[in-house]
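Lab channel / #folding
Pinned by the channel admin:
"Please post every new chain as: sequence first, then the structure tokens as a reply. Keep commentary short and put observations after the output so the thread stays searchable."

First post following the new format, from NK:
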Amino acid sequence: MKRPFILLICAALVLGACGSEEASVDPGGAPSAGPEDPVTSAPQSPGDGTVPSPEPSFVTPEPGQADVRPIGWDNAEPAKDERSVTVSYWSGVEPCSVLDHVDVDHSAKKVTITVFEGHSPTDEDTACIEIAVYKGTVVQLDEPLDGRKIVDGAR
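Reply from TO:
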């Protein structure tokens, strides 16, 4: 007979400890969380299951950067007239990651686009934070694509 009584008391103590703090309620009647309260909901996802693509911050080439190197790009979107291409890529913040120039090589079957980036030569001692920035630049072509494949020259 003692055992069920002890289990009942333990259960009451556990349940009492779980609900010891009162939740605040806003004037509309909905509970509101305080700054120390944990997050209790899952992130929302779009209704159709797709995640929207980020919009790039457009940059123009600034020749004369230091330590210039080719970097890979993620997307190349030709214009309707096929005489320019918008190239989008992930990079860092300026002055640590600056677009220097873009090379374009035309061949019979493909157009190779290579993006070159460096850092500002006048900001050698700048502390660079590691944060990703989605950048884009418009590349003018010497001739229309005419069905040729666009290739990343850095890969």
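NK: DSSP finds one helix and ten strands in the chain.
TO: also worth noting, Residues 96 and 124 are 9 Å apart (CA to CA).
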